[in-house]
Fold these 2 entries.
Entry 1:
Amino acid sequence: MSEVVIETRNLTKEFARDEFRIAALKHASIQINKGDFVALMGPSGSGKSTLLHLIAAMDRPSNGDIRVLGEDLRSLSDGAIARWRNAHVGFIFQSFNLLPVLTALENVELPLKLTRMAKSERTAHATKALQLVGLGERLTHTPRQLSGGQEQRVAIARAIVTDPDLILADEPTGNLDAASARDVLEMLVTLNKEFGKTIVMVTHDPHSAKSASSVRYLEKGELLPPGAKPVDWDA
Amino acid sequence: MIRYLPLVVKNAIRNRRRTALTLVSVATSLCLLGTLMALYRSFFYSETPEYQAHRLIVRNKVSLANPLRLSYLPLIRKVAGVQEATIYQFFAGSYKDDTPSESFARFAVESERLFRIFPEFRLSEEEKYAFLHERTAAIVGIKTARSLNMKLGDRVTLRGDIFPVNVDLIIRGIFQAGTADDESMYFHYDYLNESLRAGERDTVGAFIVRMDGPESANAVIKGIDDQFRNAPLQTKTETEKAFQLSFLAMLGNVKAFLLSICAAVTFTILLVTGNTMAMAVRERTREVGVLKTLGFTPGIILGLLVGEALVLSLTGGLLGMGLAALACAVLRSGPSFGADLSQLAVAPSVIAIGLGISLMIGFISSLIPAFTASRRPILESLRVNN
Ligand SMILES: Nc1ncnc2c1ncn2[C@@H]1O[C@H](COP(=O)(O)OP(=O)(O)OP(=O)(O)O)[C@@H](O)[C@H]1O
Ligand SMILES: [Mg+2]
């Protein structure tokens, strides 16, 4: 019996645009178990990022229920959500989003500053995370001195440094060349297989999706049933 | 909070040019502000030095331009609390070409009483003796002696204007007072008086009095003015400090003037730094979204952004106070144009107020942009591309 980590029921998100309301996500119900590696796919504008943001509690749903790691996200205050995300979620962006003024080590250490950890302990953890992604030699480099692939690896180190239960990635290979993309996917697979992290990854790339243990498709804001693909989806 | 300091400092200096410009503008304004506050303090708040607190000036109630009679002097000396009193005759006139750099104050006095009233004047016994025993002798303050290159034995001619005579003097002493008197010259009233025609003699512009102690000031002032209440020429007696301030007052409302410049400077620098901070925060919108994704709360982000402004404004303030101290040193050693700047300094209280104003500028200028940025929804921040 697997432990359910993410559970949504009729999750809906609407955005107001001018006088219209656009439903970016309609009645999505999904269940993701501990240790799953799920890829979210679908055409542009189908609501993939919207769903991921709701799981990360970076946005609040318009309707429906969402429980992640046993928390009812709708009932948490903004401050509590921030602390919850710091402790339990590692987020990886398509465009890396490292802070340009900080070194690789400082970037990775950043989420630990919110914990009670002492400086020496934070440095040790951050160093270890960077070694894990193969950047043990680049601790003092700033983002400008790194390649895109290296930047994304720093971002992965930053996402895992707090040892979160959940890793969420929005097109993590979208800005990378083929070789770097392969490295990043390999790392995610390792995190999933060897460290037991639950991973949800949005991707456009069918090849990337093969790294995941399962794929779910979205179309026009609707989450398709397991196994179903959008019509004229050529991949 | 200390763990965020490296990030705050790195952010504060990330845009070198903007940081430098902000620092320069805050430092310049605070230098100006610090100097003005030091001036204000030295005019209106400084502790009156011991020697000065003992002195009163007696003049004609109508105005400084109206003289008193020499015959008042013995009567003043009799007033209870008066230790010593002497003639304090301002000799306007001109020296050489009368350029600003050649201007200094000159007074005709009773030389033997002078040193009892001005115990802070320091000069050698030989020079004092020479001054006391020669009718045309004069002593000059060290600053003026230096700047006009006057030496012992030099002959100096002062051309009269109020007094229709020229006085020819010989420098017999160079004294050091540590006050504005370092730019003054003193010579014998008798010599001046005897140079005048019979009908013009025996008038005195002002008398200077040394009292028992500062605490008797009010009683002695009243004693002297009461003495001449029914005389043809009534007197106005005031402390030396008040007398000096009345010169300043002739320049207009100095207090309001200084305060309004201070306020204008503060306001301007507030606008400048406000604009800078708004820019600095705006170009970091996306990073704020990233920090929030990592779990930073709006409160911490507010602290980071306001802290950054405080680091900048405090650094600028410290630089400014340092520059103000330099400016005061320059003003102290330069010509004083009548105001006593010898005690001018950036006192600890002025530094405290200056740094307080710096911090306030940093706080106010960053509060609104920082607050707005810290409350903006994560996704909205992340969508911004800089
Ligand atoms: N803040 C917003 N305001 C208005 N509309 C929005 C907002 N965010 C998303 N949308 C709309 O919601 C829909 C779903 O957007 P979402 O970003 O989830 O799509 P996506 O599947 O991630 O697309 P892509 O593959 O292009 O990233 C789109 O029609 C988008 O225009
Ligand atoms: Mg998307």
Entry 2:
Amino acid sequence: MSTAMNFSSKTFRPRAPDKGAFPLDHFGECKAFKDTFMHCLRVNSFDNSKCRLQSKDYLECRMDNQLMAREPLEKLGFKDIMDEPSSEKPESKSSGQ
Amino acid sequence: MLLPAILRECCSKHGLQVATSARSCIRTHSWRELHSIPGASLLRREGRSGPLHSFTDAFLLRRAPPPRLHLQSRGAKTRKSHKQAQEEDWRRRNKTVLTYIAAAGVGMIGISYAAVPLYRLYCQATGLGGTAVAGHDTEQVANMTPVKERVIKVTFNADVHASMQWNFRPQQTEIYVVPGETALAFYRAFNPTDKPVIGISTYNVVPFDAGQYFNKIQCFCFEEQRLNPKEEVDMPVFFYIDPEFDLDPRMARVDTITLSYTFFEAKEGQTLPVPGYS
């Protein structure tokens, strides 16, 4: 926690995550999705907006493998790239959603 | 309180000119007598007949109101009684003042007790001291819209406690996000020892003020994570920055937020305090 040398000045209070902790991926079941995501980030100079699709894929992999509680994707902030027939994929990618 | 009334009776009944000392007045009547029927014995001396059953009777049979004491102020003895009446008055006023002071003291103690929950409410409402701003709800994730004009660089830092032997590092040094958009980041941990090690982590956000806008949807902190010998895992952090970040004037010049994780070894019987204001 924050070192308590600062009396009366602001201290940082950590907050618990909303949905708890990720269980560890001991068997590397979603490693491939993670690698795709990291590659996308490096290519796009670490701009998160351009790699949201890959992050969505990674989270879906986690949900499929019981590594994450299943949630509707809107709750995870992926409302804009949820409907994806393959025709919408390039559209969402290019608009930088 | 009885004394001035009795004095007045004594002096009025015994006449203006007679310089009877107040003490002799009192002495002639025993206290018990005076206590039971205050006016009765005095009136009896005047030759009134009939027993008086109550103080009311005595009061009603009194003829005239006693003359004011200040008319007798010439006499030395009457001055003394006047002074005693004045002392009585002072005593009464002192008592009132003391009552007020005591009430104020009790009020202060009560206010200091009430201040604790009131201050907590105030801190939550204003977000002072880095406390979580009340009203942070998970439903907003579904409805928030990204603020595309405000790009924020989030840098990642990884630390390990001195006695903890994991290799713990972020897989990207920085990420550019906008408020209102969920983002994913990865850390990697490797256990080089030959024994399973259980770690538990906590995090820190710099600058402190921005910490209240930094919301983690899911991460790997505050829960024990076990790594087998020679095992390496990827640890994701799924977070977003509250869109209200853009509206806060205090955050107008904040362009970089640093997220720092620290891993400790979890020992038996030792728990990392889970965050929460309680």
